């Protein structure tokens, strides 16, 4: 019997002009929908605080040993559900909800400037936009150098790329919480399928290499 997959999905608490944070509202709606009986879904609300992220994320990865962690954030500029391809290490100047900012202006001293997700967001985006989802999906390579980008980088580092970040627009601009939750569900299932497919391919590649090696020797 195949073991259940574990997926963690997070949203953020309110901050700035976002007195209600669409990301956490959408994630709570997603929790009601679930990801199907063969996937354990854990949700968590992330504080908009650099230091809280530094301690919360390692414990989430360690406690649940997820196949995938998807962070959801709100962007006042977004009009689509936006898939972020990478997280950035440097350039964190904005104060958080505790009026704190890392002195180093970075997430991980000595870490790579940018870490990419193992998931090809362009592929996920194309598949969803041709699926009749009713919600537009786009791809971005700049998560904004605030808590969203900071969280994503930290998670990509901890999970060796097995993480994703999704920016959603504020509620009603243009999508409802239910529409956003449906879109998140479709996005996550597509990501898992792609990861499974790629895992199959890499296994195949290693078998082919092994076969070639033995043939040659």
TrEMBL record:
Its main location: cytoplasm. Coiled coil: none annotated. GO terms for cellular component: cytosol. The active site is at residue 148. Transmembrane segments: none annotated. The keyword Ribosomal protein does not apply. One of its GO terms (biological process) is proteolysis. It is found in: Cytoplasm. It catalyses: Release of an N-terminal pyroglutamyl group from a polypeptide, the second amino acid generally not being Pro. Pfam families: Peptidase_C15. CDD domains: Peptidase_C15. GO terms for molecular function: pyroglutamyl-peptidase activity. Its EC number is 3.4.19.3. The keyword Nucleus does not apply. Keywords: Cytoplasm, Hydrolase, Protease, Thiol protease. Removes 5-oxoproline from various penultimate amino acid residues except L-proline. Belongs to the peptidase C15 family. Monomer. This is Pyroglutamyl-peptidase I. It comes from Sinocyclocheilus anshuiensis.
